[in-house]
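User: I'm putting together a small comparison set for a docking exercise, and I want a reference complex before I start. The sequence is below, and the ligand is S-adenosylmethionine. Could you produce the 3D structure with the ligand included, as structure tokens?
Assistant: Of course. I'll restate your input first, then give the structure tokens for the complex.
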Amino acid sequence: FIAGKKRATEVAHSVWRNVLRKGDCAIDATCGNGHDTLALLRMVADESGSGFIYGFDIQSSAIESTRCLLEDSLDPDQRRLVKLSLLCHSKMEEVLPEGTMVRLVAFNLGYLPGGGKDIITLPGTTLPALHAASRVLAPGGLISVLVYVGHPGGREELETVQSFASSLPAESWSCCKLERLNRPSAPLLLLLLKK
Ligand code: SAM
């Protein structure tokens, strides 16, 4: 799945497709323009109306873009399978019904494409969000983190994600990194699989 001219997001989606099943519950921790939310919903929604996506973003313009994309792309029955929250992803547990375990938490870090570059994900909230994601993840589930390093602060955020992943116990987590060695400024995909 890393062959050819695939963009990093397409590579991430290929991985998600291998982890998610119809009826699963997943989290888009950074909705942005909603492309990942839509992709996730299509992977989990089944005809009987199960499968659910919780989406988070701190920018109202991002939540609005996501809502519009979902309205244009899904029928009303499928739209009911998504809950969008204008909230920091570090607070994801405040939105999930008690006891909910999810199969995938997707982070697509950085800034809103097409929006201002002044609002970006930051290590100070990304780290507690990763901790929260690790608590709500079901065994067999995946935390997927796409990290961009081309903007100021991107490399520091990568360090934060890497050191979190490295600290997870090997008995219960399998953590790896997909990196384009011949394109050092390309985004990296970190995959944290809970055994
Ligand atoms: N997944 C998106 C898509 O498919 O279009 C792209 C996400 S974009 C690279 C990163 C998003 O993270 C931005 O929309 C930004 O507002 C959001 N963000 C920044 N800090 C956040 C936080 N603490 N909690 C949730 N979202 C945050």
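The first strand starts at residue 25 and ends at 28. The pocket of S-adenosylmethionine is lined by residues 30-36, 56-59, 62, 88-89, 108, 110-112, 119, 121, 125 (CB under 6 Å).
User: Thanks, that's exactly what I needed.
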